[in-house]
Amino acid sequence: MKELNLKKYKDKYVQFKDIYQSIGKKLRYKNKRITYSTYFKIITAYLEEYINEVAVNKEEIELPASLGKTYIKKEQHKRPFHVMIDINESEKKGEIVKYKIPILSDYYNKLVWERASKYKRYKILPLRKFKRLINQVNEY
């Protein structure tokens, strides 16, 4: 029987460990190499501040090195439902099981990154904390 691959999206994400492994040897502070735990703490602290500025304070953030700007935008839903895949049921039945879940509001909030054409391939994937904060702060 053919095995279902329901978690294809995991190949699209880049983890902090992968980034640290590629640039970790160059990261130094007072001629000492920065450990992964210190690097992780620095990055998460930066991202929490960034999330607070963009989502809670509703600021438009200019990124360094001409990378563009980011902000939250309110957009109208284009369809009346979400499609959800039930992984547990799909594994039991051997085929993909989908459910339609109605959308209760007419609008949603989206993180927008306006960037130069040479950076069009790079994207911000929403973090779990980012989504929670955006959903808590409804008025945009």
Strand content: 15-25%
Judged by helices, strands and strand pairing, the structural class is alpha+beta
| Multimerization state | single chain
Order of helices and strands: HEEHEEEHEEH
* Number of strand elements: 7
CATH superfamily: IHF-like DNA-binding proteins
Average pLDDT: 79
Low-pLDDT residue intervals, each spanning 5 or more residues: none
CATH architectural name = Irregular
Distance between the termini: 49 Å
CATH class: Few Secondary Structures
Task: Walk me through the structure.
With 140 residues, this protein is α+β, with helices and mostly antiparallel strands. The chain has one domain (14-136): Irregular (HU Protein, Chain A). It has helices at 16-23, 36-56, 87-93, 128-136; strands at residues 28-29, 32-33, 61-63, 68-76, 81-85, 98-102, 107-114. It has a 3-stranded antiparallel β-sheet, with helices on one face. A hairpin with a 4-residue loop joins strand 3 (61-63) and strand 4 (68-76). Helix 2 runs parallel beside helix 4. The chain is extended. The N and C termini lie far apart (49 Å).
